[in-house]
Structure formats: C-alpha cells, structure tokens
C-alpha cells in the first residue's frame, strides 16, 4: 500500500508541475482555438480529458454544447412546441448542413447553450423523422417526396387510383371473367405502379407533405408548378373546351374539374392533364355493334343517256359485333386493336344503272365515318362558330382518312384555317369536306373515289389544337353546311 501511495503522490506532483509550467501564451492560444462563433472561453482545465459536443455547419465550427442531455432536451422541447401537432409520432434531429462531433479535451468550456439553440432555431437546423417515397426508373431514383406518414401516402395513392378504376371495378377483377351480355366495356386487368420505394428518412419540416391534398397534387402533376387554364366563354360546351385545349375528352375535363357543376362565362377551368410519376395501366375489352357499309355497283344501260342514272336496287348496311382490346394509361387511351368479330347481318349492295360509258361516281347518300375506330372529339357547335364534326381514330393518332361516300374529287388545297383539305362532289346535291390533313390529300382533280378509299391522313394543319380530321357535309348549290349526325350518318357511340 505504501508503494502505491508513493506512486500516486508522484503522479499528482508531475501533473501539477506540467500545469504550472504552462505559459500565459500557450493558455491564450488554447482559448483562441476554442472561441467559435459565440466567443466561448476556457473557464478552467480538467485533470482528465472530457467529451465535448462540437457543433458544425458544413466545415464551419459554431460552438460547444454543454452536454448530450441538454441537447436532447432542447430537441424534445422544439418538437413538442413547434411540430408535434402537425407531425405526430416523430422527433427532431439536426440537419440542413448542421452536425455534431464528439471531441475530447481538458478544457471546461463556457456554457452558451441559450445562444447556440436560438441560432439553430433561427437557421432552420432541424429535421424530422418521416417517410421518404422514392420514385424509380430502371431501378434508379429520379425524384422523391417526404410524407408525414406512410398511411397518408397510401390514402392519397388510393384516391389517385380511383380516378381510373373504381372499388367496384377492383372487386369485379377478383371474380371469374364474365362474358358480355350486351354492348359495352369491361375492365379485364389493372397494372399498378411498382416504381416506388418507401423508407424512413429525415427531412426539413417545410419539405414534408402533411395533407392528402398535397400528396395527391404531387401524384397528379409531379413537380409541375404552373398549370394551363381556360376562361369559359358564353356558349362553351365541355367538348368544345376540350377541343380548344389539346383535345381533352369530356371525361378528362370532368376529372380535372371535379368541383365544377356547370359552365358559366368567366369561369376558370383547369385544362392541364396529369403528369404523374406513376402509371396506372387499365386493360379493357369493348364490345361494339358496327355497321358494314354497303357498296354501290354500277351497270351500263344503253337505254339511258350519258349522264343519266336510275337505282335498280337500294343498298342496305349490314351489322357485326366487334370485340376490341384497349390499353389505358392514367385515363388516356394509348392503344387498341380488334380481337374478334362476328357478322350478324350481311350488307346488301346498291345497284345503279348508268348511261353508256358514264364515269360519274354517284353518292349513295349514306355516309360512313371518315376514320376507323371513330370518335368525335368536338361535335357540331361544341364552341362558337364550329360548323362540322372533329373525328379522331381512337386507337391510332395519325391514322388514314377515308372518303365518306362515292364521288369525284372537286378540290384539293391548303389555307390558314382548314390546313390541308379535300372536297368530294357526290353528284347528288351534296359535297363532303375533309380538313386539317397531315399533308396534301391523295388523288387528282376529277378522279373517282369510292366510299372507304384512302384520301389522306389525320393531321393538325391549319387552325387545329390536336390531331383530327374536320368533317363537313354541305349542300352544293347553297354552300350550307349540315350536321352529319342529324340523320345523314349514324353517330351512335362516336362521342368521346
């Protein structure tokens, strides 16, 4: 015991000699090194080294926090007072470039916690524990959002899904595949987004989405800040507003403006369709009843003068059931194809006798849609001054355009309004006009065209906001335009 006592005395003396031998200059240098942003001073020296909590902002030393306990109590206070109500079940941590390092030293540092904590609060140094939703492309993150909870994200996600597929639709998918009992549409499968990963993370409070609406807006538009709008005018109709704004369908407009019940002049409409980081893919089958257009056959009759004709047999359209497959992505029809068909009534061709060597192609008066898979994106008078029908091919954006009836090409041209256009004379008092074609129409002036012949391609030349073919029927003598859907053409199922 005496031996150990002598050793301890010797150690204390050695330490005392060391401290006493420190010059004022060396102590001054130590103080300078520890000054930091808040002029913290060395109050005394410890016999053994102690842990210090050094606060940094990036590479800049800010100051020393008195203890881990004081630091944790401060974070708890900040969370309880500022964030708990809006972000429950979380806690505060340092972030935004601020961090702590544990450093050993013999110095007792002046307590400046109050100033340091005020500085942290002023400079938004706090992050909150939350959930990060990462959006991936080919396995790599391309954007992310922070949400207050995973449950919050899932609720917004379900609302986004229901834009395109209802709970009833989802429930029906769990049942055996049902056959069509009537014409219509059935959802056959849904592909849900698999490009997200949810994990725990820390984020600044201002970065965290804390409401369903905030999360839903991101799922709808991503980072897009400015949306296109349209101010309604007197006489506007839904399909007209859609046509004037990129060809939005009535259903899409209603989806974007769910709170709007009726159109009124001066009303602001959202016409910016979704730009979501998610893709909800819905596969549908559609059963339609379609006409099989009759054709017109001509026979020479030497008893008739050249230019004369008479009908020997009236034509009659046939009908067929056609089953289509469609692919919809976020409510937009992106592709479709015919799966099968069954003829339920054959077409009966018309028979017309014409004078010897008559080369006129006389229209039947029964008009077909100028495109396959026809949909009318803008009906007659869908906006002020619109006298015609805007047709699109539902499954093909730049599809072929067909002659609606027999006739001869009366005019091919281009102007600022109609773009590329063609006019067909049907020699029965009527002409048809096809406008906004992609390029110059096919054929030569005076050449004969038959119902269903290709005369061009869908385009958006002239004054057009989306790809379509403008279609009009007009009286040749007066130039009066006529609504083809008023008894001249069966438009059933054509409206979008």
From TrEMBL:
<dbReference type="InterPro" id="IPR011055">
    <property type="entry name" value="Dup_hybrid_motif"/>
</dbReference>
<dbReference type="Pfam" id="PF07501">
    <property type="entry name" value="G5"/>
</dbReference>
<dbReference type="InterPro" id="IPR016047">
    <property type="entry name" value="M23ase_b-sheet_dom"/>
</dbReference>
<dbReference type="GO" id="GO:0004222">
    <property type="term" value="F:metalloendopeptidase activity"/>
</dbReference>
<dbReference type="InterPro" id="IPR050570">
    <property type="entry name" value="Cell_wall_metabolism_enzyme"/>
</dbReference>
<feature type="domain" description="G5">
    <location>
        <begin position="278"/>
        <end position="358"/>
    </location>
</feature>
<protein>
    <submittedName>
        <fullName>Peptidase, M23 family</fullName>
    </submittedName>
</protein>
<dbReference type="Pfam" id="PF01551">
    <property type="entry name" value="Peptidase_M23"/>
</dbReference>
<dbReference type="InterPro" id="IPR011098">
    <property type="entry name" value="G5_dom"/>
</dbReference>
<keyword id="KW-0732">Signal</keyword>
């Amino acid at each position: 015991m005496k031996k150990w006592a002598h050793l301890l005395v010797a150690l204390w003396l050695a330490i005392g000699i060391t401290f006493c031998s420190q010059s004022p200059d060396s102590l001054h240098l130590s103080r300078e090194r520890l000054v930091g942003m808040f002029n913290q001073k060395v109050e005394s020296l410890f016999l053994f080294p102690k842990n210090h909590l050094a606060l940094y902002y990036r590479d800049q030393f800010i100051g020393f926090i008195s203890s881990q306990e004081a630091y944790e109590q401060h974070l708890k206070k900040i969370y309880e007072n500022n964030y708990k109500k809006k972000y429950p079940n979380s806690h505060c941590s340092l972030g935004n470039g601020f961090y702590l390092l544990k450093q050993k030293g013999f110095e007792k540092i002046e307590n400046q916690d109050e100033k340091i904590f005020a500085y942290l609060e002023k400079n938004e140094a706090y992050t909150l524990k939350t959930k990060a939703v990462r959006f991936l492309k080919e396995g790599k993150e391309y954007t992310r959002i922070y949400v207050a909870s995973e449950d919050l994200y899932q609720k917004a996600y379900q609302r986004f899904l229901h834009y395109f597929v209802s709970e009833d639709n989802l429930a029906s998918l769990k049942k055996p595949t049902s056959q069509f009992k009537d014409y219509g549409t059935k959802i056959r499968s849904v592909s849900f987004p698999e490009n997200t990963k949810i994990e725990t993370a820390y984020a600044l409070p201002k970065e965290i989405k804390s409401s369903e609406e905030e999360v839903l807006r991101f799922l709808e538009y991503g980072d897009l800040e400015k949306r296109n709008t349209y101010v309604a005018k007197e006489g506007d109709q839904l399909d007209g507003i859609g046509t004037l704004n990129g060809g939005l369908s009535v259903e899409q407009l209603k989806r974007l403006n769910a709170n709007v019940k009726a159109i009124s002049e001066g009303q602001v409409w959202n016409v910016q369709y979704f730009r979501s980081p998610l893709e909800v893919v819905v596969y549908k089958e559609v059963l339609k009843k379609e006409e099989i257009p009759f054709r017109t056959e001509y026979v020479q009759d030497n008893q008739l003068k050249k230019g004369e004709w008479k009908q020997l047999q009236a034509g009659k359209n046939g009908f067929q059931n056609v089953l289509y497959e469609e692919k919809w992505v976020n409510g937009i029809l992106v592709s479709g194809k015919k799966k099968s068909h069954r003829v339920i009534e054959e077409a009966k061709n018309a028979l017309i006798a014409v004078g010897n060597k008559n080369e006129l192609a006389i229209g039947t008066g029964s008009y077909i849609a100028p495109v396959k898979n026809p949909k009318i994106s803008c009906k007659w008078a869908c906006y002020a001054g619109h006298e015609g029908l805007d047709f699109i091919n539902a499954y093909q954006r730049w599809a072929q355009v067909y002659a609606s009836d027999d006739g001869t090409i009366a005019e091919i041209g281009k102007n600022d309004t109609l773009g590329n256009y063609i006019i067909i004379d049907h020699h029965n008092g009527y002409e048809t006009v096809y406008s906004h074609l992609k390029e110059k129409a096919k054929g030569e002036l005076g050449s004969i065209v038959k119902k269903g012949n290709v005369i061009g391609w869908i385009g958006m030349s002239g004054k057009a906001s989306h790809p379509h073919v403008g279609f009009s029927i007009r009286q040749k003598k007066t130039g009066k335009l006529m609504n083809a859907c008023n008894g001249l053409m069966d438009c059933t199922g054509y409206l979008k």
